[in-house]
Structure formats: C-alpha cells, structure tokens
Design goal:
Layout: E1 2-5, E2 8-13, E3 21-22, E4 31-33, H1 40-53, H2 58-61, H3 67-77
Parallel strand pairs: 2-4
Antiparallel strand pairs: 1-2, 3-4
Helix pairs in contact: 1-3
C-alpha cells in the first residue's frame, strides 16, 4: 500500500525481516516495512515507523522507553484490532 507522511510518499509492506524499517528522504525509494499480523507488537511497530516517516527525530523515538509501545498498549486496551484489508 502507499501512504503519504510528512517526509514523503511511502510504500508500506508487512514483511520486515527485523522489527521495523523506515527509509529516510534521499533514499532511492521510500519504504516502510512493519511486522505482519494483528498483535499489539505489530501495532506498536507500525506506530513507531510511521512516526519516523512523519519526521519525528530518532532522539525522540529510539530512546530507553518507546512511546509507541505505550500508545499501542492504550489502544489495545481500548479494543483496537485490525479488521480485514
């Protein structure tokens, strides 16, 4: 799928060999790769990588405590789940 964020138009795939990857502007192709599935961890990874694409600097995202994990826990507790597509 394609998604537009502050730093550009990204191709988003769910096939990350690691936990998550987000290309930076200047790369030949802008892509985000996240974990597949309908889990709280997959949600947290997606939020984290989307924040990178939104231009939030690494120093705010890749610290000792990842805000995306807290946000995913809160959303999961509110009943967030994927539904199809």
């Amino acid at each position: 799928m394609k998604a537009t964020f502050r730093l550009g138009k990204y191709t988003v795939t769910e096939d990350s060999p690691l936990v998550g990857i987000c290309d930076t502007p200047g790369d030949a192709h802008l892509g985000i790769s996240v974990l597949p599935g309908n889990t709280r961890k997959a949600l947290a990874v997606s939020l984290h990588e989307f924040a990178h694409a939104g231009g939030i600097p690494d120093r705010y995202l890749d610290g000792e405590r990842d805000w995306a994990v807290d946000a995913a826990r809160a959303l999961w507790g509110m009943g967030w789940r994927r539904t199809g597509g």
